[in-house]
Design brief:
The chain is an alpha/beta fold and about 325 residues long. The chain contains ten helices and 13 strands. The protein is globular and about 60 Å long.
């Protein structure tokens, strides 16, 4: 590169989203010291509508569409996303070539009075905005009262501190990134709570035909994280899932082998279907689809239909 160049980053305005965008900016400037980076803050529907559960206000793309509009109309060059918020389909002109090195993908138990999930009283008030978390909690703590919890991380912590809940469940990655790791009382095992698809990973979206930007951001991609998220997202793609459905997927790498687990269940946890697959990393996406087929074979279509979702064709 020669001369100063500018990269404009579309981001939500929440503290965590800005942290993520600034982390991308810092890495870009480490790679290209002469680069100028500008953050373009945007408000998304998911940020504006805080009095309704995510599953009831549209689900897919609630935190993404406005950022994509900024890419399409030229206000921004790249958009930085939490991968668990990113829908499967992209506008034809856009793609997501970069998945950065993944942070801790686990859920975190946060409480001011109790050390762990196991220590909660049977009728504990637990705050979460995630049907995936609700489903898995209710399967193991059927007496718990799951209460809607929306807002940014600090807003959610403030509601806990005000005594609204005995505990809340948040993504460990977000708390760590914001320097709030000391609020975590327990890291929840992935055997207890399978993470959201893409949880802990940051993705970078841009215009397909912008060769300058694609070249600039390419070194930020982490191939292992990319393979894991690709496998997880393949489950969601096959099931036509979103935040309206309790779906989870989690891939792990060991040497050149990938192991992926997936689940789908009813929100009240009375039935959860699980599947897993193992194979070579190069087959990450087909292995994710294989897990989805295992879920469909066990009745995932019935759960999707019961929740008003389109049921994928299954033979």
């Amino acid at each position: 590169m020669s001369g100063a160049e500018l990269v404009r980053i579309a981001t939500r305005r929440s503290r965590l989203a800005v942290w993520q965008a600034e982390a991308v900016a810092a890495q870009l400037q480490n790679l290209h010291p002469e680069l100028e980076v500008e953050l373009v803050g945007m408000s998304t529907q998911g940020d504006r509508v805080l009095d309704s559960p995510l599953a009831k206000i549209g689900g897919k793309g609630l935190f993404v569409k406005e950022l994509e509009d900024g890419l399409l109309d030229g206000r921004a060059d790249i958009a930085v996303h939490s991968m668990k918020d990113v829908p499967m389909a992209f506008p034809p002109q856009l793609h997501l070539p970069v998945i950065m090195r993944r942070e801790d993908p686990r859920d975190a138990f946060v409480s001011n009075r109790f050390e762990s999930l196991a220590a909660l009283p049977p009728d504990a008030r637990i705050g979460t905005s995630s049907l995936r978390r609700q489903c898995q909690i209710m399967a193991q703590l059927p007496g718990a009262r799951i209460l809607e919890l929306r807002g940014n991380v600090n807003t959610r912590l403030a509601k806990l501190d005000a005594g609204t809940f005995e505990a809340i469940i948040l993504a460990a990655a977000g708390l760590k990134r914001l320097g709030l790791e000391d609020r975590i009382r327990e890291y929840i095992s992935t055997d207890w709570s399978l993470p959201a698809i893409g949880q802990g990973a940051i993705g970078i979206e841009c215009r397909r035909d912008d060769s300058r930007i694609n070249e600039l951001i390419a070194p930020l991609d982490d191939p292992e994280s990319n393979a894991r998220v690709l496998a997880e997202r393949a489950i969601n793609a096959r099931l036509n899932g979103g935040c309206q459905v309790p779906i989870a997927g989690f891939a792990q790498l060991t040497d050149n082998e990938i192991f992926i687990r997936g689940l789908i269940g009813y929100p009240d946890g009375h039935r959860i279907i699980r599947g897993h697959a193992r194979g070579e990393v190069v087959d990450a996406e087909p292995l994710g689809r294989e897990v989805a087929e295992l879920l469909l074979a066990q009745g995932a279509g019935k759960i999707l239909a019961a929740l008003g979702m389109e049921v994928p064709y299954y033979q």
